[in-house]
UniProtKB/TrEMBL annotation:
Family stated for the protein in its record: Belongs to the copine family.
Protein name: Copine III
GO biological process, one term: cellular response to calcium ion
Species the sequence originates in: Lates calcarifer (Barramundi)
Gene name per UniProt: CPNE3
Taxonomy, superkingdom: Eukaryota
GO cellular component: plasma membrane
CDD domains assigned to the protein according to its UniProt record, in alphabetical order: C2A_Copine, C2B_Copine
Pfam families in the record: C2 (PF00168), Copine (PF07002)
Domain C2: 1-115, 124-269
Gene3D superfamilies linked to this entry: C2 domain (2.60.40.150)
PROSITE patterns to which the protein is assigned, alphabetical: C2
GO molecular function: calcium-dependent phospholipid binding; receptor tyrosine kinase binding
Length: 489
């Protein structure tokens, strides 16, 4: 499947303490951005301007990149001392480089790393800083607005208030939106409405907006509570406070607003060890590890884990198995840690999950049945605890890798989750046993066999395609804001 561009990201680059390659002056640095293709070939994307005679440059030229959440987008920033007018950089002095992923940059919001030379040794004390900012001009802001204690402008009855929003332009104020009229009400709540961010403030969340209710004009930024001031009344009346208060109850954040604002994605892996997978010693088994050291379970862990690890700062991932008899009692377990440590089921990075799986596999006996609900309820319990927090600080993702035969379908549905097409809500939301519809589609089912001969990143693209929208809609539904301001400092 083709990956969906989530948004565009603007990268700003600066450096400190670059190597000085010039005699009698300082280096004249330039930054070149390269990206990696699916076959790991590097190609040049763009270059900044050259900064004359400077070892700590702040490049004015920005790099604009299409951002794909479900792809590992490898970046390389190369710094060169430019001493001639040729396009070829091979005859310019190399000052250092940084390889990273776009996921690492956006999840850090501002990434600072040491520069290294081609042999990976330090490039002196040189460092590079990359700041990321989402280009939000195509966003739509969802507003819920109410007012209280507005002035009464009518002689008979109460006022019929409406609200107008104006965008600041070079030539004056431009009407962006007008709400409906709420009849005979000094404490109105208007119907939720949407305004393109470009129409509202040119994509700048800090840019003033003018709002007008009756004859009261105020300036505010898109997320605020503000007072309505009647200037004539203020001049005449001592102790005048306001003519009412308007509050913007809710604005829609994007996926990257949450990520750049400090939201962590907690990644848990659950692996199917039921007998229907086949004897791991047989090449026909999904658990059979080939002479090259891979099997289908390992491929799925690597593919998805390599993407999602950039969004979890400590990179400690709980990993569980289900459907096996485990030592020493050989009782069937549907929720056992791959590292056999119930008090600390965390694995260090994707590599740690892979290693725990390799060690675990020969120690357990594949059995059954295929019960998902214990694992789902385990992760759901942590997710529920996270909802007690006042900001959108954590989102939980559970990757279940299974051969596809669910035994506890009823219990799985009851947990509002599941696997398989039946539980993937693309064609209508999942319903519980009582018939109640799930609040949102949170399941993405992907048959691995469709990707056996596809590029390695194709599986992750399909598995994770819906996640950005799921994250944004979830936090939006609970009106949770990012932990801190998502704009770069």
């Amino acid at each position: 499947m083709a990956a969906q561009c989530v948004t565009k990201v603007e990268l700003t680059v600066s450096c400190n303490n670059l190597l000085d390659k010039d005699i009698g002056s300082k280096s004249d640095p330039l930054c070149v951005l390269l990206m990696s293709t699916s076959d790991s070939q590097w190609y040049e994307v763009e270059r900044t301007e050259k900064v004359q005679n400077c070892l700590s440059p702040k490049f004015a030229k920005k790099f604009v990149i299409d951002y794909y959440f479900e792809i590992v987008q490898k970046l390389k920033f190369g710094i060169y001392d430019i001493d001639n007018k040729t396009i070829d950089l091979s005859d310019d002095d190399f000052l250092g480089e940084l390889e990273c992923t776009l996921g690492q940059v956006v999840s850090s919001r501002k990434l600072t790393r040491p520069l290294v030379l081609k042999n990976k040794s330090p490039a002196g004390k040189g460092t590079i800083t990359i700041s990321a900012e989402e280009i939000k001009d195509n966003r739509v802001v969802n507003f819920e607005v109410q007012a209280r204690k507005l002035d009464n402008k009518d002689f008979f009855g109460k006022s019929d208030p409406y609200l107008e929003f104006y965008k600041q332009t070079e030539t004056g104020w431009q009407l962006a939106h007008r709400t409906e009229v709420v009849k005979n009400n000094l404490n109105p709540s208007w119907r939720p409405f949407r305004i393109p961010l470009q129409s509202l403030c040119g994509g700048d969340m800090d840019k003033p907006i003018k709002a007008l209710t009756h004859t009261h004009a105020v300036l505010f930024t898109p997320q605020a509570e503000f007072e309505c001031i009647n200037s004539k009344k203020k001049q005449k009346k001592k102790g005048y406070k306001n003519s009412g208060v308007v509050s913007v109850k809710h604005c829609q954040y994007t996926f990257l607003d949450y990520i750049m604002g400090g939201c962590q994605i907690n990644f848990t892996v659950a692996i199917d060890f039921t007998g229907s997978n086949g004897d791991p010693r047989s090449p026909q088994s999904l658990h059979y590890i080939s002479p090259q050291g891979v099997n289908e379970y390992l491929s799925a862990i690597w593919s998805v884990g390599n993407v999602i690890q950039d969004y979890d700062s400590d990179k400690m991932f709980p990993a569980f198995g289900f459907g096996a008899q485990i030592p020493p009692t050989w009782q069937v377990s549907h929720e056992f840690p791959l590292n056999f440590n119930p008090s600390n089921p965390f694995c260090a990075g994707v590599e740690g999950v892979v290693e725990a799986y390799r060690v675990c596999l020969p120690q357990v006996k594949l059995y059954g049945p295929t019960n998902f609900s214990p694992i789902i309820n385990h992760v759901a319990c942590f997710a529920k605890q996270a909802l007690q927090q006042t900001t959108a600080s954590q989102y939980f993702v559970l990757l279940i890798i299974t051969d596809g035969v669910i035994t506890d379908m009823d219990e799985t549905r009851g947990a509002d989750f599941s696997a398989m097409e039946f539980l993937d809500g693309d064609d209508g939301r999942l319903r519980s046993l009582s018939g109640e519809a799930a609040m949102r589609d949170i399941v993405q089912f992907v048959p691995f066999r469709q990707f056996q001969n596809a590029p390695s990143q194709a599986l992750a693209q399909s598995v994770l395609a819906e996640l950005p929208q799921q994250v944004a809609s979830f936090f939006s539904s609970f009106k949770l804001k990012p932990p801190h301001d998502p704009s770069p400092s």
